[in-house]
């Protein structure tokens, strides 16, 4: 392989796997307005666009660019001490944001990668908003259409937070709450940077729609509530559940139903339906977090399929180009990386990464999967990547270019 590995002096595997995953999309998260491969006659080297000097206000960006350029030096020997010093600098910068990473203990790769992306976004954010974007924003009721409410929130979001990180990962959740009494419907909007996917273990409550086969699914609906040990979960089913949730809430105080009630009168409570869905899909990359660990740190070992592509099914989504509502829309993403945890507890074990490498991102030509295990980096196959069903923890998918 022409890409170097990362030393592990003391339980740094969670960081090494995270950095290798991000290195595979470096120019998308570290470069403002990266060139589109489709506009080039020659494919683009993953590191050639990375800046050499990012300035004093962007120390993490500078450290990442330096490391990723060094790892991609083709045919040149890797200086282990130099690489270790670079990764230690990145670790220290992330620890300033989250002190959890100050020590040399084993830590969670998901927490590390999200903290790093947050730090990077803060450094590179070009937004000038008034701080409202990350607050939940409700629509204005009957005076505003659902599309207008969604576009208003999206504009606020972009005004406050615009960086290569948000350009790559950001989408938008919509939560629709409808009163069963007066039928008033209120939409609330929240930012989407990742999707957390519940997976069921042998002692966990079963999400019926995430069951692997019809027999198990019928069993769950009949009240068993448990997933048989070793049952295989289809990622598409679990993802569908995570992005199209419906609940009923009792004892809800509806503002419309209580409008005009006299002061001192007890509030009228009713039942409402709550539906959560994706209004805007991530524009470049979809990051999926399989919730492998329970609160006590023990691991859910249920196998989860790793499809080469996944499709987001969105009901009532918003087309950002036409600013129109789309009753039903599908967006397809293709697998470009994974992080796996090998072990039985979040406090122990070992992290590795599988990432798609190559000169450019315009199709599979010239691109191969690399297995990254600390200092060891070698060629692997898509079949091997997709076979790691019991240990896969994070999955990174790239949006098909025809749908961007």
Q: If you had to describe this structure to a student in words, what would you say it looks like?
A:
It is a single chain. Helix 1 (13-23) crosses helix 5 (109-124) and helix 3 (59-71) packs antiparallel against helix 4. It is built from 10 helices and 13 strands. The chain has helices spanning 13-23, 26-30, 59-71, 80-97, 109-124, 146-160, 164-169, 214-221, 235-243, 382-386, and strands at 137-138, 171-179, 185-192, 195-197, 245-253, 269-280, 285-290, 309-319, 324-342, 350-358, 367-373, 376-380, 392-399. It has one domain (13-403): Alpha-Beta Complex (Cathepsin B, Chain A), CATH 3.90.70. The radius of gyration is 23 Å and the shape is globular. The chain starts with 12 loop residues before the first helix and ends in a 5-residue tail after the last strand. Helices cover 26% and strands 27% of the residues. It is of the alpha+beta class and 404 residues long. The strands form 2 sheets. Strands 4, 7, 8, 9, 10, 11, 12 and 13 form an 8-stranded mixed sheet that branches. The chain has a 5-stranded antiparallel sheet with strand order 1-3-2-6-5. Residues 38-44, 129-136, 201-226 and 359-364 have low confidence and may be disordered. A hairpin with a 4-residue loop joins strand 8 (309-319) and strand 9 (324-342).
* Structure class: alpha+beta
Largest sheet: 8 strands, mixed
CATH architecture: Alpha-Beta Complex
- Average pLDDT, rounded to a whole number, is 82
Shape: globular
Question: What radius of gyration results from the CA coordinates?
Answer: 23 Å
Helix content: 25-40%
| Sequence of secondary-structure elements | HHHHHEHHEEEHHEEEEEEEEHE
Strand content: 25-35%
């Amino acid at each position: 392989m022409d890409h170097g590995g990362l030393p592990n002096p003391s339980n740094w595997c969670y960081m090494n796997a995270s950095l290798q995953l991000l290195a595979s999309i470096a120019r998308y998260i570290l470069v403002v307005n990266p060139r589109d491969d489709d506009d080039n006659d020659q494919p683009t080297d993953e590191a050639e666009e990375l800046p050499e000097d990012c300035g004093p206000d962007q120390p993490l960006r500078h450290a990442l660019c330096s490391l990723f350029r060094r790892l991609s030096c083709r045919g040149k020997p890797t200086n282990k001490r130099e690489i270790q010093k670079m990764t230690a600098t990145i670790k220290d910068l992330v620890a300033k944001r989250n002190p959890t990473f100050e020590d040399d203990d084993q830590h969670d790769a998901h927490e590390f990668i999200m903290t790093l992306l947050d730090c990077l976004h803060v450094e590179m954010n070009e937004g000038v908003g008034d701080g409202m974007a990350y607050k939940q924003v409700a629509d204005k009721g009957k005076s505003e259409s659902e599309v207008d409410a969604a576009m208003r929130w999206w504009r606020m979001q972009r005004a406050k937070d615009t960086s290569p990180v948000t350009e790559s990962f950001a989408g938008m959740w919509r939560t629709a709450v409808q009163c069963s009494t007066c039928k008033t419907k209120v939409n609330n909007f929240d930012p989407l940077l990742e999707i957390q996917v519940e997976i069921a273990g042998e002692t966990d409550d079963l999400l019926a729609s995430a069951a692997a086969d019809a027999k198990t699914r019928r069993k769950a609906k009949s009240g068993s509530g448990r997933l048989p040990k070793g049952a295989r979960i289809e990622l598409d089913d679990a993802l569908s559940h995570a992005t199209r949730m419906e609940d009923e809430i009792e004892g809800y105080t509806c503002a419309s139903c209580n409008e005009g009630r006299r002061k001192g009168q007890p509030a009228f409570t009713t039942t409402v339906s709550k539906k959560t869905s994706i209004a805007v899909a991530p524009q470049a990359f979809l990051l999926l977090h399989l919730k492998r660990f329970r609160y006590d740190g023990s691991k859910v070992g249920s196998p989860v399929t790793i499809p080469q592509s996944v499709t987001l099914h969105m009901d009532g989504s918003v087309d950002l180009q036409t600013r129109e509502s789309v009753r039903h829309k599908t967006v397809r993403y293709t697998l470009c990386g994974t992080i796996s945890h090998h072990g039985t507890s979040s406090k122990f074990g070992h992290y590795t990464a599988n990432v798609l490498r190559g000169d450019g991102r315009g199709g599979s030509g010239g691109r191969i999967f690399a297995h990254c295990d600390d200092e060891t980096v070698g060629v692997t196959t898509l079949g091997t990547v997709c076979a790691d069903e019991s240990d896969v923890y994070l999955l990174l998918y790239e949006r098909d270019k025809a749908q961007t």
